[in-house]
Amino acid sequence: IKTTHKLIHELILGADTGLIGGQNNISLNFTNKERVTANVKAEVIADEGIEFTKIPKEFKKINDGRYAAELEITKLAGNLSLNITKGYFFGFRGTKVGTSYIRGLVTYSTKNYGERVLSELKEGITFTDKSLIVRSNFEDLEFESNQARTLKIWLQNLDAELVIKNVFIKLNGGGVVELPDIFIKEFKPQEQRRIIDVDFFAPYFQC
């Protein structure tokens, strides 16, 4: 026999895509269909690529990406049959390109029975980056067969406030020069870094 819990819980996401550093929000909502108060223990957990910027006052910090609360989801006095939804709103921004997740863990009890574990909630947000710019001197180079040239590539964080983390750059030399993939743990605001400085010989061009 499958039992349906009378405390309904859900995560409502503001937008499932966004830019690195852009503001977004998510709410953890409860609807109490019990006829008595539901005593709720809730945790909201974000992946490393998400930074919370606003936390409901009921939630206390466990670590940078984890907050917990003990809540009472009450009924309306004089009308126990009326189901009221209560929401707790979190603000956040992305710090890592790709898809990151926010999860909700919930248990609850009432005066009539002990703690029950509800299903885990999970919402994904895909972040793209418009703050990073790649520059090179490739277009300025004049190629003559078998002549030595130097290729330089720079990466710059254009954002004045945001620290961008875990940047992976896949480079393709177009058959002219071998280039490695690059991983950078952290880019400070407005930081510029030369990521490639390599000498090579222009290939032989057959006319």
How would you sum up this structure, described in words?
This protein is mostly beta strands and 207 residues long. The protein is 0% helix and 57% strand. It has strands at residues 7-13, 17-19, 23-32, 38-46, 50-54, 60-63, 66-73, 85-94, 98-110, 113-117, 121-128, 132-136, 148-157, 164-169, 182-187, 192-201.
Q: Which radius of gyration do the C-alpha atoms yield?
A: 26 Å
Oligomer: single chain
The helical percent reads under 10%
SSE succession: EEEEEEEEEEEEEEEE
Mean pLDDT: 84
Beta fraction = over 45%
Low-confidence stretches: none
Main β-sheet description: 7 strands, mixed
Name the descriptors.
16 strands, 0% helix, 207 residues, four-stranded antiparallel β-sheet, mainly beta, rod-shaped, seven-stranded mixed β-sheet, single chain
Outline:
With 207 residues, the protein is mainly β. The chain has no helices and 16 strands. Strands 2, 4, 6, 7, 9, 10 and 11 form a seven-stranded mixed sheet that branches. A four-stranded antiparallel sheet has the order 1-3-8-5, with no helix packed on it.
